[in-house]
Amino acid sequence: MRKFYHILFFSVLLINMGYGQCQGDTNLDNTIDEEDILIVVIHILGMDAVEGAGFTNGDVDGNGTINVFDLVAIVDISLSPEIGCDQFLPIDLSLDWQVQEDLSYFDSEALENIVNDEIASFQYIRGFIVIHRGEIVSEHYYNGSSMGQVFNIWSVTKSYISTLVGQAIDQGFISTKFVTLDSIFYQNNYTTQVTLEHLLTMTSGWPDHVGYMYTDNILDILLNTNLIFEPGTQFQYNNAVCHLNSYVIKEMTSMSPKNYAMENLFPQLGLGNPYWGVDADGINNGSYDLKLTLRGMVKLGQLYLQDGYSGDDQILSSEWVAAATSPQFNYFYAYLWWLPGVGYLAVGYGGQYIVVVPELDLVIGIHSATQSSGDYQDQFLDIIYGQVVPLFDLNGSINDFEVNFEYITSTIK
């Protein structure tokens, strides 16, 4: 009889998997354990009702009630290591964000207190959004900003250009990230030494060129500039050299970065046809000047959190996601993504941020006034990593993590 029940239970479970975020997870902490069992017992006894998404997950057989049969099923789930809560299914990023209405599974009151008492007090804050498990759990706009405001994401653009380079490698337009630039452009004393990976890690050896966006024939000028250190031996944050990634995409795909993105990235992220500034020769800026809404900007973070998937379609390889967000030349920078100590971070001038913590299925976006101060940026990052991120560490998976913003805040003011 018990064998028959197990067959029936698992059949019902498979049928109903799509209806709840995680069958049996009544407290929405992404695990099924004794706490969920206790919640169901209390519900059955009529002492405290389960509601919302918790009810959906507790109603394992999908009959509209939580009863003793659901309780037995949840006990079985908790005792079966092969059945449990996997990470949420990748959402289709071409669609609008969904808002999670049931916030009872984490300390939402603490989050609201942080938002109302601390974040709202900042002079330079414009927008703040928290995405957990693919749904918005907090979103606020300040000082005249709004959900629909389009703004310059500044150097967050670099993380977008990194993504396009990764896609070009995935699709075979570029053979490898280790290719030297003489194989892409032409041979001289410098291009034979500098690789694509050097451009992605800010270790090329070329100096910056402040007016690169307004200089004719900037590609030739940059490629023929003397190196100031041996490629791959020093880190030097460099907007002009990062812009060379745009020329790599143009040369290897025969499309401008924007046109390439309009085929391979922007539609899949639901970004429409955004403005993206160009240099004097008409090539999109590889370092900044892509303009998006806050909801749009953070789609890139969710793409990486989802291992390159938008819904069922993988538009960026797992290999690139891993490499682009792992230490390369140093411990704080990857392939145009910053590494603060937990997860990874896209950073733009003035305080534009995409915070990604994959261990917690968490993405946070911040839009700030361009003229904000370095102190503001330090304080905001302290609040994000010191107060907001821990609220979503429901299982203690990143206890005692350490963050370091020294290079980030000293490099990008």
Annotate the secondary structure layout:
Blueprint: H1 2-16, H2 34-44, H3 52-58, H4 68-79, E1 98-99, H5 108-117, E2 125-132, E3 135-141, E4 151-152, H6 156-170, H7 196-201, H8 218-223, H9 239-253, H10 257-264, E5 291-292, H11 294-297, H12 299-305, E6 309-310, E7 313-314, H13 318-324, E8 344-348, E9 352-357, E10 362-368, H14 374-388, H15 406-411
Parallel strand pairs: 1-3
Antiparallel strand pairs: 2-3, 2-10, 4-5, 6-7, 8-9, 9-10
A few lines on this structure:
With 413 residues, the protein is α+β, with helices and mostly antiparallel strands.
| Secondary structural class | alpha+beta
Helix content: 25-40%
Rg over alpha carbons: 24 Å
Instruction: Report, as a whole number of angstroms, the end-to-end distance.
Output: 68 Å
> How large is the count of helical segments?
15
Shape, per Cα inertia axes: elongated
- In total, the number of strands is 10
Q: Give the strand line-up of the largest sheet.
A: 1-3-2-10-9-8
| Mean of pLDDT | 91
Percent of residues in beta strands?
Answer: 5-15%
Q: Sheet bearing the most strands, described? A: 6 strands, mixed
Low-pLDDT residue spans: 7-20
H-E string: HHHHEHEEEHHHHHEHHEEHEEEHH
Write structural notes for this entry.
By secondary structure, the protein is α+β, with helices and mostly antiparallel strands. 35% of the residues lie in helices and 10% in strands. The chain contains 15 helices and ten strands. A hairpin with a 4-residue loop joins strand 9 and strand 10. The longest helix is centred in the N-terminal third of the chain and has 15 residues. About 3% of the residues have low confidence.
